[in-house]
């Protein structure tokens, strides 16, 4: 990849979904005369992202949020690289709700952080923003010295005239630079010139998190703030009938009990008073029609979708139906994936100060504009009267793309004077989560005499998140997110991938969960390919290699993963008597990245599974910070192990049965596998990395369990029969 010139008025506008170009226009109307008339030196704000003050403070208005994925550091590195400043010089400010300036070009312009696309969406726009500022500052210095800009260079935020040695800091140039016209073209650095990008730099947010200075939404504190404990209807879509609050109001520290149609909150002087008051309430709920809803009834509806004739075709090559009908040999398999909760360490919380003239909300959200709009709906105020104070997020995984908790908190705040912080209990968090959809998938393959597949068909049945969140993107009955990675990275001679939308009963809302389509599609496709390899009597790696083009990125990660894992070496025996060990492999192409993983497991005689080791090879294109890539893949793998072994939300009588970590288990530190991450060098544009590690490990573990036990488990979580 070579250095590139960018036409600011056209290419960057399109690349950024309009956000950068609108940011550019922000200050361009202010000429030099207007700025000179101001009483104090002006900051330099060439676009919506960068502000340089006369005191040399350089602030990046961060268009994405930080929830542990390293976004603050990676995006700051992009700007610092082109600005020619040390990373430590970058100060951060949260972007306000403003999709026009801070929308994500990889998310249709919505102002969200999710989909593993923060770096993908910022790769060109933020580097261009930094380069634009640098060019203008150099031009300002050149004008000051009355020399050509080509005679100047930049080092650590100082413009230097090469021949005379004269120097001016960025802060000294702000007023002159602010009066310049925006450049029509800027040239971005080539990778050979990178000083920051590609280096394992320390995280900008790490020191404050280690020291305790970091502030999350739950840490919001306001003068005279009170605390609220919340209970919503335990049944899907249920309503509040009545509340006997006499005992609660008599409890020390309880100030008030407030109600809306499906929830009640106790307001107290401190969180313990609110919690104790909530426990003292006598609440009557109307469950509505939810009493007949169960996991079994939902699964029956999903399985019914396998026979429907109205499937939306996502991809078709050749006549898969004819190939399957005429095949001498065929394999058909049905897979089930359960509802999943997010179970982030920071429970749902929202602090609200609602007044007649405005509403302030302190929250950790992945979607600031959605949070603002939800607060406006609940308060009855115009959107411009709502201010969102965004924070670091203690785990999002897609849950905080939603704004239901903001809307509920503001609605309850209408009956409270002064600021109040709403914190959901862990039980409330899990039982009123917006769940990862449950799916039923069916795959069929036609197989020739040599055991090679001649055709494959894959039907995905599940609810559509896109239809709810972005209905304009749900076209002709197809949810592209639900079918992503639905045929894997392979070259099938003939194929069909289709989708049937089957929604759960009203009141059970589904949402994104650290990748949605790939989290279940990789599990079913890679499990199915393993079954095909077993039927053919072949090695799972060799079988996959034959389906992947030579020198393809998917084949390269597969070859590296199996080499680093020692695929051909025998596994060490299990330490426990009667336990069995196995090794499994899986490949994923999704989110613009390619990953392959080899998992090693031990299955004891009772059927309990321990994941001992996971080796992962990654090609995510150009790497911004290799330490972040490794950390994200490692964390994604550990997150996926929990889902593979225990992750399942079940419904009984219209209620979520799980309530806390005792029955919605997460991986414990002592159970965490050894993880190795190997990164392939690449000059391709960056891909996403937050979700792929989770998506591929589910399949790798499932295949390892099959290898250990000889049983094929087609449902998650994995529960092989005991020996």
Terminal CA distance: 55 Å
> What strand line-up does the widest sheet have?
11-12-9-19-16-17-18
Mean pLDDT reading? 93
What profile does the largest beta sheet have?
7 strands, mixed
CATH homologous group name of the largest domain: Aldehyde oxidase/xanthine dehydrogenase, molybdopterin binding domain
Tell me the structural class.
alpha+beta
Number of helices: 21
Number of domains: 3
> What portion of the residues fall into strands of 2 or more residues?
15-25%
Number of E strands: 28
The low-pLDDT segments are 7-38
CATH architecture title of the largest domain = 2-Layer Sandwich
Rg for CA atoms: 28 Å
Indicate the CATH class of the largest domain.
Alpha Beta
Overall shape: globular
And the CATH topology of the largest domain? Aldehyde Oxidoreductase, domain 4
Residue share in helix:
25-40%
Task: Give a written overview of the molecule.
The model is unreliable at 7-38 (pLDDT under 50). The protein has three domains: 5-210, Aldehyde oxidase/xanthine dehydrogenase, molybdopterin binding domain (Aldehyde Oxidoreductase, domain 4, 2-Layer Sandwich); 217-288 and 348-423, Aldehyde Oxidoreductase, domain 4 (2-Layer Sandwich), CATH 3.30.365; 296-339 and 436-709, Aldehyde oxidase/xanthine dehydrogenase, molybdopterin binding domain (Aldehyde Oxidoreductase, domain 4), CATH 3.30.365.10. The chain is an alpha+beta fold and 723 residues long. The longest helix has 28 residues, at 118-145. Helix 4 links the parallel strand 3 (58-62) and strand 4 (90-94). It is built from 21 helices and 28 strands. 31% of the residues lie in helices and 23% in strands. It has a seven-stranded mixed β-sheet with strand order 11-12-9-19-16-17-18. A five-stranded mixed β-sheet has the order 14-22-21-20-15. Strands 23-24-25-28 form a four-stranded mixed β-sheet.
């Amino acid at each position: 990849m070579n250095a590139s010139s960018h036409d600011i008025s056209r290419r960057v506008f399109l690349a950024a979904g309009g956000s950068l170009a609108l940011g550019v226009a922000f200050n361009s109307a202010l000429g030099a005369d207007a700025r000179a008339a101001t009483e104090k030196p002006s900051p330099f704000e060439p676009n919506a992202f960068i502000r340089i003050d006369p005191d040399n403070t350089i602030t990046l208005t961060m268009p994405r949020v930080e929830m542990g994925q390293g976004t603050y550091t990676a995006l700051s590195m992009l700007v610092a690289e082109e600005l020619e400043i040390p990373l430590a010089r970058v100060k951060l400010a949260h972007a306000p709700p403003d999709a026009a300036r801070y929308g994500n070009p990889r998310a249709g312009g919505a102002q969200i952080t999710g989909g593993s696309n923060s770096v993908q969406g910022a790769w060109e726009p933020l580097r261009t923003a930094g380069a634009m500022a640098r060019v203008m500052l150099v031009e300002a210095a050149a004008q000051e010295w009355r020399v050509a800009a080509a005679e100047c260079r930049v080092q650590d935020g100082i413009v230097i005239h090469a021949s005379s040695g004269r120097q001016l800091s960025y802060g000294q140039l702000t007023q002159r630079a602010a009066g310049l016209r925006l450049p029509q073209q800027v040239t971005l650095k080539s990778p050979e010139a990178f000083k920051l990008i590609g280096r394992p730099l320390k995280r900008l947010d790490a020191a404050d998190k280690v020291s305790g200075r970091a502030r999350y939404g739950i840490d919001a504190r306001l003068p005279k703030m009170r605390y609220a404990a919340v209970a919503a209807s335990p049944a899907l879509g249920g309503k509040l009938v009545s509340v006997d609050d006499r005992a609660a109001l008599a409890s020390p520290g309880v100030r008030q009990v407030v109600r809306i149609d499906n929830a009640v909150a106790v307001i107290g002087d401190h969180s313990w008073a609110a919690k104790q008051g909530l426990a003292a309430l006598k609440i009557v709920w109307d469950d509505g029609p939810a009493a007949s809803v169960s996991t079994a009834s939902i699964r029956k509806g999903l399985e019914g979708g396998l026979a429907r004739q109205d499937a939306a075709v996502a991809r078709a090559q050749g006549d898969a139906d004819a190939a399957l009908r005429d095949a001498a040999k065929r394999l058909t398999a049905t897979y089930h994936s359960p509802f999943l909760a997010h179970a982030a360490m920071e429970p749902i919380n929202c602090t609200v100060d609602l007044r007649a003239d405005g509403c302030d909300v302190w929250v950790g959200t992945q979607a600031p504009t959605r949070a603002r709009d939800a607060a406006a709906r609940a308060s009855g105020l115009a959107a411009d009267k709502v201010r969102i104070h965004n924070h670091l997020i203690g785990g999002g995984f897609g849950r905080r793309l939603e704004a239901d908790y903001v809307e509920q908190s503001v609605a309850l705040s209408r009956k409270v004077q002064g600021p109040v912080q709403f914190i959901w209990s862990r039980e409330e968090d899990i039982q009123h989560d917006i769940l990862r959809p449950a799916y039923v998938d069916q795959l069929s393959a036609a197989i020739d005499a040599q055991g090679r597949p001649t055709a494959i068909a894959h039907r995905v049945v599940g609810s559509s998140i896109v239809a709810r969140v972005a209905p304009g993107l749900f076209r002709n009955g197809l949810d592209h997110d639900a079918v992503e990675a639905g045929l894997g990275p392979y070259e099938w001679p003939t194929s069909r991938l289709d989708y049937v939308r089957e929604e759960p009963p009203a009141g059970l809302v589904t949402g994104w969960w650290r990748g949605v389509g790939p989290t279940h599609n990789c599990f079913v496709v890679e499990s199915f390919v393993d079954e095909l390899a077993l039927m053919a009597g072949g090695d799972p790696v060799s079988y996959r290699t034959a389906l992947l083009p030579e020198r393809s990125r998917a084949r390269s990660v597969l070859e590296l993963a199996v080499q680093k894992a020692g695929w051909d070496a025998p596994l060490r025996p299990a330490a426990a008597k009667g336990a069995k060990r196995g090794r499994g492999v899986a490949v994923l192409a999704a989110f613009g990245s390619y990953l392959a993983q080899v998992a090693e497991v031990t299955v004891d005689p009772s059927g309990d599974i321990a994941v001992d080791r996971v080796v992962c090879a990654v090609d995510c294109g150009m790497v911004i910070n290799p330490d972040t890539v490794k950390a994200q893949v490692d964390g994604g793998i550990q997150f996926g192990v929990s889902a593979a072994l225990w992750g399942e939300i079940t419904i009984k009588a219209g209620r979520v049965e799980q309530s806390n970590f005792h029955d919605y288990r997460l991986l414990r530190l002592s159970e965490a596998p050894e993880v190795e991450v190997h990164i392939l060098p690449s000059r391709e544009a960056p891909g996403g990395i937050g979700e792929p590690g989770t998506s591929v490990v589910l399949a790798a573990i499932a295949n390892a369990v099959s290898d250990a036990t000889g049983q094929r488990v087609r449902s998650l979580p994995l529960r092989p029969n005991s020996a």
